[in-house]
Amino acid sequence: MTGMLASVNSLEEARLVQQAAVDIIDLKQPEQGALGALPVAVVTEIVNALPQARISATIGDLPMRPEQILPAVRNMAATGVDYVKIGFFPDGDWLACVDALQAVAAQDIALIAVLFADIHPDFGIIAELRRAGFRGVMLDTMDKRCGSLTQLLSGAELDAFVAAARAQGMLTGLAGSLRLEDVPDLLELAPDYLGFRGALCQEHRRTAQLDLARIRRIRASWPAEVNRAVHV
Fold first, then answer.
1. Which of 85, 135, 144, 197 is catalytic?
2. Does residue 228 have a pLDDT over 70?
């Protein structure tokens, strides 16, 4: 079954999406980039205020260098979030970062890799992520001006991504300027989560304020039999 992930940048926004019964509250700062990070203190505040919520958080738009990625992941994991999301940006050494993070994953810290459709990543990296102990992998968009996930990749490509992750026993997520009209087709692919930000905001701008009516409209688009996620 597929769940709904909603990205928020404050405790106020987290409480708002909680009212709509989203499955994962995703903490990030859209004004700081594709996966802009919130301060660790803010993340800790939200985690402590919402003890029953399932929460993920990004580490920021960092270059793929182990000496930068590793401390950022450890610091974010120390907040108590359920998942730490790491963007695999085009610069740097992916495999060196994956190798460095293996020790973190071995400490039962749930790592989620975020690949970007804009750069047409090789899905072969998914097997390496699994080898290192990553819990899941998401497909998102890096440059929001380039269009939505469903505009950048075909249904067959998205299906191949979900199948590759599922074959490795990993959680899967699809995000990237998704809209209400994308939901039915993406649910057919059966990822674990669909992620939203812009579609939940006023004027469909990801840096604008969240709109509870829009959040509820997206949440209500799930068929009754597919309306909750399988949490792993």
1. 85
2. no
